[in-house]
Amino acid sequence: MLILLPPSESKTNRHRGKPVDPASWSFPDLNPVRARVAQALAAVSASPDAPALLDVSPGLLDDIARNLVLDSAPSTPAAEVYTGVLYDALGLATLDTAARRRANRWIVVVSALYGAVRPTDRIAAYRLAMGTTLPDVGALAAAWRPALDQVLPPLVGRGVIVDCRSAPYAAAWRPGVDLTHRWVQIRVPGASHMAKHTRGLVARHLCEVGTDPRSVPALADVVGEAFTVALHEPTSARAPWVLDVSAVV
Hints:
Number of strands: 11
Distance between the termini: 28 Å
Shape: globular
Low-confidence stretches: none
Helix content: 25-40%
């Protein structure tokens, strides 16, 4: 199984520790693009127009300043860097040993800066969204797409792609036609806050149950053990299944 998550807007960093080591990250084939994006991000972040260029509030200068020290900031596991509604619901730190092991193996966070990371990868907090366009890099989703298309498909194995990403991050990689029959987007009716919360709960449930379905209908049955679900078939050969998920009242 491959569970795809978006990053969080809010991020935390440890105050002490060794700096990041790109050689230690998962998916080393992404490192050339990671370096290009980091260099362009640092240049933009040093500009007086950084908030506008990064499309963030001028009140977030401290967050932008993190982009200037990415290579010297204390490295922090991605499981701690990403915070907020989805990650609170996922609760990686509170999973038992077996479930945490599955989470570390199944979950991949698609990132505007790092491309893709596992929960155990030690990274630095940053401020960058996938919808951003950077000088000398271009639109980030397009910049990441060829590289992600090389590293993500082999992770699927014989299992299912459980896609919990938001639209900008989903644009960075779409499974090819050879995988779309095992690709399902998790859709949650209602407000954004509830959608993030429920997607986090779905990811947690899958890691706790430990079942590794070989088809989307079988995956829907597993999710349906804890949620109200409605499965919709793909609308074309390139489209995913869609699983509507609501918390059981």
